[in-house]
Design goal:
By secondary structure, the protein is α/β, with parallel strands linked by helices. The protein is 34% helix and 32% strand. The protein is built from 4 helices and 5 strands; from the N terminus they run ββαβαβαβα. It has a 5-stranded mixed β-sheet. A hairpin with a 2-residue loop joins β1 and β2. The radius of gyration is 13 Å and the shape is globular. The N and C termini lie far apart (38 Å).
């Protein structure tokens, strides 16, 4: 599966939908696209990893760097994983303690105050 990142707005969130593998070869493109969204003014970001088959430590580093950047600006970052093989990895690396994980874009973009 070819690597791609698409961006769409959903409620007050910018949603990045990623497909393919996030590894040393594709992580720079992922980082560039993600940082472009963040520096473009997005304070709330959802990253849909449902279509990602593999992520290595470089990709995990991109996620952590983005989380720090968004949160330091008062925003939030959330992950979506539906039937993803990444769930075990996210749990093993304890990223599920740092990043909120949801099973759908609708759930991730829901406003808890509404």
């Amino acid at each position: 599966m070819e690597f791609s990142v698409t961006v769409a707005s959903h409620r007050r969130w910018e949603v990045l939908t990623v497909t393919g593998e996030i590894d040393m070869a594709t992580a720079p493109r992922f980082r560039q696209r993600l940082l472009g969204v963040i520096t473009g003014g997005a304070q709330n970001v959802v990253i849909d990893l449902s279509g990602v088959d593999f992520i290595d430590s470089t990709g995990l580093g991109v996620l952590m760097g983005a989380a720090k950047r968004v949160r330091s600006a008062g925003g939030d970052i959330r992950l979506v994983m539906v039937g993803s093989r990444l769930a075990d990895l996210i749990e093993l690396t304890r990223l599920d303690r740092v990043l909120d994980v949801f099973d759908s874009i609708a759930a991730a973009t829901e406003d808890p105050e509404a």
